[in-house]
Amino acid sequence: MTLILFFCRSVAALGVLSLACLSSAHAQVEIIEPAGDFQFGKVAVHSSATQILEVANRGPSAVQLGSVISSIAAVSPICTGIGCGVVISTDFTIPAESDGCSNTLLQPGDVCSALVRFSPSGPGMRGSQLNVFKPQAAYVSRALGGTGVSEPLDCVLDGAEQTWPQLLTTPTMTSTVSPYHLRCYAKGAICVGADVDNPTDVPRFDQPSVYVYDAQARPPLQRLDYLSSLSRLAQCR
Fold first, then answer.
1. For the whole prediction, is pTM greater than 0.90?
2. Whether 36 and 20 share a structural domain
């Protein structure tokens, strides 16, 4: 198990860019909600959270809007490896049934709205960019950001860090290195993780287990216990 560790210590490490309007002729279209970028905070993996998008026509004439989409076209991560943010557009969606902006003719002074949903497919920081397209391929945009939380593993690891703070130093964000969700410590010397739900590429015990990778141990990868047992020990919900 070879691990290469790069640290990302803020959401800015996702490299998500917020772009201004690409055409001054269509600067009359503005995103008024949210005032800044979308930040969904921590959301459990495979659950979801929503925020409202509002777009206003501040100009004197009607504007035909195009699609409202989550796109990675203008998003570039500035780090790779365990704990870095993941640029993944499919974790951020605009459900059609709650999209009142796509392909709408927005009259002067009018405001349209849509729901933006964050459904993390894995743990760790996730990012993308929301684009509201306008005529002549111009668009206005907001960065999209959130953190997927793998429960009860994140709770177990949080408890372990409080119990052994001298050993489990400089933690990364929880991330996925198939077939595990894991968090690494001490510059990658130690990693603790659990089976990804329903892995297909490796055998496992009859229920998810927790493993520790220690570069100094032989063998370096060892099973600790069932995730459910450690979750009860850590009093995780």
1. no
2. yes
Nearest to 69 by CA among 22, 102, 42, 26: 102
Domain that holds residue 224: 153-233
d(CA 63, CA 136): 11
Domain count, the chain: 2
Q: Among 149, 169, 184, where does a domain finish? A: 149
Residues 33 and 141 in one domain: yes
Co-location of 34 and 120 in the same domain? yes
**DSSP state at residue 38:** E
Q: Are 160 and 168 in contact (CB under 8 A)?
A: yes
Q: Encode burial over 74-99: b for 16+ CB neighbours within 10 A, e otherwise.
A: ebebeeebbbbbbbbbebbbbeeeeb
Strand-pair category, 86-87 with 124-133: parallel
The owner of tokens 């493993």 is 211
What is the per-residue pLDDT across 20-78, written as a single tens digit (0 to 9) for each? 333 333 458 999 999 999 999 999 998 999 999 999 999 999 999 999 999 876 555 55
Whole-angstrom distance between the N-terminal and C-terminal Cα of the chain?
31
Q: pLDDT tens digits, residue range 81-123?
A: 676 778 889 999 999 999 999 999 999 999 999 999 999 998 9
Contact 128, 75 (CB under 8 A): yes
